[in-house]
Design goal:
By secondary structure, the protein is mainly β. It is 10% helix and 39% strand.
């Protein structure tokens, strides 16, 4: 087991028209916009250690971000 520490995180949020694949996965119609989130995390050497792309139904989710770091 290796402990990975995030040094920084970049997140980008966008309202998008979903693809057919996203519609099927989220069980929504093509005309329902979704919130897309792209996240890239970096270690202390600025090396990318995580990349995620997620899609959220606007009628089911709200998104809150809280961050903290121990000094």
């Amino acid at each position: 087991f290796r402990r990975v520490l995030f040094r920084s995180i970049d997140e980008e949020f966008s309202a998008i028209n979903p693809s057919e694949e996203i519609c099927l996965a989220l069980k929504i119609r093509k005309d329902q916009p979704v919130l897309a989130r792209k996240r890239v995390s970096y270690d202390k050497k600025k090396k990318k250690i995580e990349y995620t792309m997620c899609y959220y139904r606007g009628d089911l989710y709200s998104y809150t971000i809280s961050t903290s770091q121990k000094l």
